[in-house]
């Protein structure tokens, strides 16, 4: 009941929004701006919170900040900015506060142990040489070699301990600085990034982020339906067209999307081993729905033989006995018959491929739409890492980035005064 009253949350949120809009996300830099920047002095009514108070607001008010981001998306919906009901979904890797040297997987530990063992062998050989030429080798050099050996042995002990910790973790990964960060391959960088996989669903008309999610999943494969459902809720439209790249291709996810009322568009990845070896791939065999057969490149009919269940998926198997005398067999299979397996819901995938063939510009639209927000946000961040740690706090930080981005986009679309009037209303 004593002491000075706390800063109003609206004041703190305004300060953070100013920071993210002007590439000043750091709490220490915001503290300095609140003391010297005339714009910030006016915005905060000359209040100057210290950096700890600023940082604590972001840390302690994650749910409220995320709710504010969602409320702004609902405001965009009321302003009829999501009229086309088409969204593009994509993910991008953002670096965490965790160096690669502080991230461990089984393969990384094995590689570092091999490097350490090679260094130990090299230093032992150098010491052996020094022992044989004792008068000619300075004592200081021998001492340095022994110190290096001691450090390497300590490193080996640490790696053996980390090997046990990694083996006990559910996903066989351990990050020491940020425990929720994960090592994942970045297609843009062509290397491994220790960080988070940020998912966004972006409106194709105005490039507004209608939904976002910070994950530590190393793949996009399981993110299609969750992001599509978030986009449905945000836009208020069940019949939503969803564009994604081949990294999201998953039969189960596509079927789940269609059951939820969405219409997905994405290309199928090229995973045919036979095609890679110069033989016919599955795409060279034409399915005839009315007869439930496949037509092979030689014109033969591959008929249904039996069903099997693999990884919870029911698969139909097709082949023909004509392979033995076929002139194209060397270009088709190395076995007795070429067998084709068809998933029970593969008709849904075929229908999606036909839609994509009729709308080839869909992937161009996806790329033009969803890569723009990621590029803008990363430019604002200065190609650096998140400032906070753990999935919960990083999600709050990303919500501030998304809120600032969406606000800037709406100002560009409508102008400042119409937006202010809509917020007041």
Q: Number of helical runs?
A: 14
Q: Stretches where pLDDT falls below 50 for ≥5 residues? A: none
Provide the residue-averaged pLDDT.
91
Any idea what the CATH architecture of the largest domain is?
Answer: 2-Layer Sandwich
Question: Major sheet, described briefly?
Answer: 6 strands, mixed
Number of structurally distinct domains: 4
Residue share in helix:
40-55%
What's the total count of β strands?
13
CATH fold-level name of the largest domain = Nucleotidyltransferase, domain 5
List keywords for this structure.
Nucleotidyltransferase, domain 5; 13 strands; 4 domains; alpha+beta; flat; five-stranded antiparallel beta sheet; 425 residues; 14 helices
Explain this structure to me?
The structure is a single chain. By secondary structure, the protein is of the alpha+beta class. It has four domains: 52 residues, no CATH class; 168 residues, Ribonuclease H-like superfamily/Ribonuclease H (Nucleotidyltransferase, domain 5), CATH 3.30.420; 75 residues; 74 residues, no CATH class. Helix content is 48%, strand content 17%. It has 14 helices and 13 strands. Strands 1, 4, 5, 6, 7 and 8 form a six-stranded mixed beta sheet that branches. A five-stranded antiparallel beta sheet has the order 9-10-11-12-13, with no helix packed on it. Strands 2-3 form a two-stranded antiparallel ribbon. α5 runs parallel beside α13 and α8 runs parallel beside α9. It is flat, with a radius of gyration of 29 Å. The mean pLDDT is 91.
């Amino acid at each position: 009941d004593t002491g000075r009253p706390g800063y109003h949350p609206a004041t703190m949120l305004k300060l953070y929004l100013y920071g993210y809009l002007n590439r000043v996300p750091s709490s220490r830099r915001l503290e300095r701006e609140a003391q010297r920047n005339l714009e910030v002095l006016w915005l905060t009514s000359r209040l100057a919170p210290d950096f700890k108070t600023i940082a604590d607001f972001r840390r302690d008010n994650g749910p409220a900040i995320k709710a504010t981001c969602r409320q702004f998306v609902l405001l965009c919906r009321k302003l009829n900015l999501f009229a086309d009901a088409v969204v593009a979904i994509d993910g991008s890797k953002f670096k965490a506060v965790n160096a690669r040297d502080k991230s461990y997987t089984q393969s990384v530990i094995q590689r570092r142990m091999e490097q350490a063992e090679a260094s130990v062998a090299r230093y032992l050989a150098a010491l052996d040489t020094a022992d044989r030429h004792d008068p000619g080798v300075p004592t200081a050099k021998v001492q340095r070699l022994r110190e290096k050996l001691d450090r390497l042995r300590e490193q080996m002990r640490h790696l053996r301990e980390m090997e046990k910790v990694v083996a006990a973790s559910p996903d066989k990964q351990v990050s020491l600085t940020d425990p929720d960060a994960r090592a994942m391959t970045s297609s843009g960088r062509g290397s491994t990034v220790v960080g988070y996989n940020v998912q966004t669903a972006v409106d194709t008309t105005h490039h507004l982020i209608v939904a976002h999610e910070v994950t530590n999943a190393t793949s996009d494969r399981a993110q299609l339906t969750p992001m599509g459902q978030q986009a449905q809720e945000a836009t208020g439209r069940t019949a939503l067209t969803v564009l994604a790249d081949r990294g999201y291709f998953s039969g189960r996810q596509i079927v789940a999307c269609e059951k939820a009322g969405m219409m997905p568009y994405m290309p199928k990845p090229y995973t045919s081993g036979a095609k890679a070896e110069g033989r016919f791939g599955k795409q060279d065999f034409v399915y005839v729905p009315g007869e439930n057969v496949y037509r092979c490149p030689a014109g033969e009919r591959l008929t249904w033989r039996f069903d099997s269940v693999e990884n919870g998926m029911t698969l139909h198997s097709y082949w023909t006995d004509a392979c033995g005398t076929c002139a194209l067999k060397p270009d088709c299979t190395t076995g007795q018959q070429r067998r084709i397996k068809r998933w029970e819901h593969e008709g849904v995938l075929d229908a999606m491929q036909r839609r994509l063939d009729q709308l080839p510009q869909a992937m161009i639209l996806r790329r033009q739409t969803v890569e723009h927000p990621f590029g803008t946000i990363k430019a604002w961040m200065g190609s650096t890492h998140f400032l906070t740690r753990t999935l919960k706090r990083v999600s709050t930080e990303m919500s501030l980035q998304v809120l600032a981005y969406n606000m800037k986009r709406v100002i560009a679309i409508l102008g400042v005064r119409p937006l202010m009037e809509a917020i007041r209303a």
